[in-house]
Each structure stands twice: as structure tokens, then as C-alpha cells.
Specification:
The protein is an all-alpha fold and about 230 residues long. It is built from eight helices and no strands.
Length: about 230
């Protein structure tokens, strides 16, 4: 499939993966670090408290899926191997669950803002019109977008995504087993929704509608446009 792409599209796909892998690694390490601070050493004991990508990379979710999305010109997102943690070992169950869950998205938002500051500094130099600076600024733009996309995708309150960590402490303890059981089915349902809704809308003669893509564009897309105005929207 890559053989039919022009050189700019290939570079775009490669840069997208280069941006995605460290973003997802820091995301997972942030979960592990937060869990440790909340009293659970499970992630540390499993050697997941490391920036070594090989400890976190899922071959399909971290490499193949983002690459396919980038090649198709779609927003790049994916997943790494989930960081294991035991909420029963938290010093405070409810606080630990929320802090550990939101640590990943928070790290992506901070990385996006840091990249925006770097881009602002770089843009002040006269050489920004050179080919090297063009790809540097493009890389920073993609890094900002990828991190915002990861943050807002994971903030969806659907288990096992990170946003569900906010809902769990609100439930009575007797509902926890059912909630954890839902995690096994929620992601397939989300994928069916993402794939099925566009197909059904197109089948009935309407413009294909992808709810996840619309959500990412409304959140990560708009924020990226705000913090990366040089890309021209």
C-alpha cells in the first residue's frame, strides 16, 4: 500500500509513528508512577515503570494500527499493553483509582503543551522557511495532535479507557465485579460503533458519520489548531 503513496505521505506516516510511540510510552509510565505513589507496587514489580518502549509496545496497537491510520490520512491513535495495577493495594481506593486513571491523559496534555511552547520558540527564528524547519514544525504539530488525541480518546468514560476510572468510585462496592466484567466487552462494542455507524449511515445514502472521529476533531483537533496556529487549521 505504501508503494502508492507519495514521498510526503510516507514521511507523514513515519513521523506520526515517531510521535505516537513516546507519547503512549509516557502515558503508560505515568499510570505506573501514579499507582506507585498511591501505594501499589504491581506495575513496578512487573517492570513497567520504565521508559523502555519494549516494555509497553503492543505490536498491533502501538505500531500497526497507528501506521494504518496515518497511511489512510486519519487521526493517529492506538494503545499499548495496559499497565497492571491492584486497586486493593491503594492507600485510598477511590483516590488511587482516579489519580492512577487520569495520570495517563494528564501526561499527554502536558506533553502537547510542552511541544507547543517548543514550537513557539522555534518559530521565532528566521530559518523557519527551510525544508528542515518545515518538517520539524510538522513533527511538532503531529506530536501536539497525537497527544491531545490520546488524552481525549482515553478520557471517554468507557471501560477499560481511563475515563472510566472516574465512574468506578461513584459506584457501590457490590457493583465493582459487574463493572470490571463490562471491561471485557466495552472495547469491542466501541470498535463496532466506530466501524458500524459509518457503514450504516452510508448504506442509507447519508454521508458516512464516524462518532469517534467527530469527537477527536472537536476536541483534539480544535485544541491543536489553537496551540499550533502556524499549521493553518
Amino acid at each position: 500500500m505504501i508503494a502508492f503513496l507519495n514521498s510526503d505521505q510516507v514521511i507523514f506516516a513515519v513521523i506520526s509513528i515517531i510521535c505516537f510511540i513516546p507519547s503512549i510510552v509516557v502515558h503508560e509510565v505515568s499510570h505506573a508512577f501514579a499507582a506507585l505513589k498511591m501505594g501499589d507496587t504491581t506495575a513496578k514489580d512487573s517492570k513497567r515503570l520504565t521508559l523502555n518502549p519494549m516494555a509497553h509496545v503492543d505490536p498491533f496497537g502501538t505500531v500497526v494500527l497507528p501506521l494504518l491510520l496515518a497511511i489512510c490520512g486519519l487521526p493517529v491513535f492506538g494503545y499499548a499493553k495496559p499497565v497492571p495495577y491492584n486497586p486493593n493495594r491503594f492507600r485510598n481506593f477511590k483516590v488511587g483509582e482516579v489519580v492512577t486513571g487520569l495520570a495517563g491523559p494528564a501526561s499527554n496534555i502536558l506533553m502537547a503543551l510542552a511541544a507547543a511552547i517548543v514550537a513557539l520558540v522555534v518559530s521565532q527564528f528566521d530559518w523557519v522557511a527551510s525544508p528542515v524547519s518545515y518538517w520539524l514544525m510538522s513533527g511538532l504539530y503531529l506530536f501536539i495532535f497525537v497527544n491531545f488525541a490520546l488524552a481525549f480518546f482515553n478520557l471517554l468514560p468507557i471501560p477499560p479507557l481511563d475515563g472510566s476510572s472516574v465512574i468506578l468510585p461513584l459506584l457501590p462496592r457490590r457493583a465493582y465485579p459487574a463493572w470490571y466484567k463490562i471491561q471485557h466487552y466495552a472495547m469491542p462494542v466501541l470498535l463496532v460503533l466506530v466501524i458500524g455507524v459509518p457503514y450504516i449511515t452510508a448504506m442509507f445514502g447519508y454521508q458516512p458519520f464516524n462518532p469517534l472521529l467527530a469527537y477527536i476533531r472537536a476536541t483534539a483537533g480544535n485544541l491543536t489548531g489553537l496551540f499550533a496556529p502556524w499549521a493553518g487549521g
